[in-house]
Amino acid sequence: MNLIVAVDKNWGIGKDNKLLTSIPADMKFFVSKTTGNVVVMGRKTLESFPNKKPLKNRVNIVLTRNADYHVDGAIVVHNDEELQAELAKYDSEKIYVIGGESIYKKMLDMCDIAYVTRMDYAFDADAHFPNLDEMDNWELADAGEEETYFDLEYAFCTYRRVR
């Protein structure tokens, strides 16, 4: 299983249920990785999308404890058992965890590859991703060239789980 995330210098990922910033090349990268695949997210992440609608051309799986929650175009699961049963239907290499904070933390140990857009700036964030650089069971496998969007420097990095 994979995960995909954009983080700032302090591994911040969001503020007030919104992304810290929007980098067109990062959005394009996200679309290229996830289109045609399965995306797993929490309810608040889904509700942060335009019109609170699932992402097109992907299987959207939403994990929420709210038993009454339903959304057209998405598979809604309510606990870990339902989530695991649903994920078992797909090739794990085609599954991407896309947030938010609690979903990333819950599913990190199930993932083998992390696509991380690292931004060289510290935003005011209230949601964070675990710092993979401080974890013995993750290694930086590839660090892309540093790129710039206006005055924001960033790089596409790939981390791999160490087995």
Structural account:
The structure is a single chain. β2 and β3 form a beta hairpin. Strands 1, 4, 5, 6, 7, 8, 10, 11 and 12 form a 9-stranded mixed sheet that branches. This protein is of the alpha/beta class and 163 residues long. The chain has a single domain (2-161), classed as 3-Layer(aba) Sandwich (Dihydrofolate Reductase, subunit A). 19% of the residues lie in helices and 36% in strands. The mean pLDDT is 97.
Helix- and strand-based class?
alpha/beta
Work out the number of β strands: 12
Radius of gyration: 15 Å
Shape: globular
Largest sheet report: 9 strands, mixed
Strand content: 35-45%
Number of H- or I-type helical stretches? 4
Helix share of residues?
10-25%
> Quaternary state, please?
single chain
Q: What average pLDDT do the residues reach?
A: 97
CATH C-level name: Alpha Beta
CATH H-level superfamily: Dihydrofolate Reductase, subunit A
What is CATH's topology name? Answer: Dihydrofolate Reductase, subunit A
CATH architecture verdict:
3-Layer(aba) Sandwich
Number of domains: 1
N-C termini distance: 14 Å
Q: Poorly predicted ranges (pLDDT <50, ≥5 residues)?
A: none
Could you state the order of secondary-structure elements as H and E? EEEHEHEEHEHEEEEE
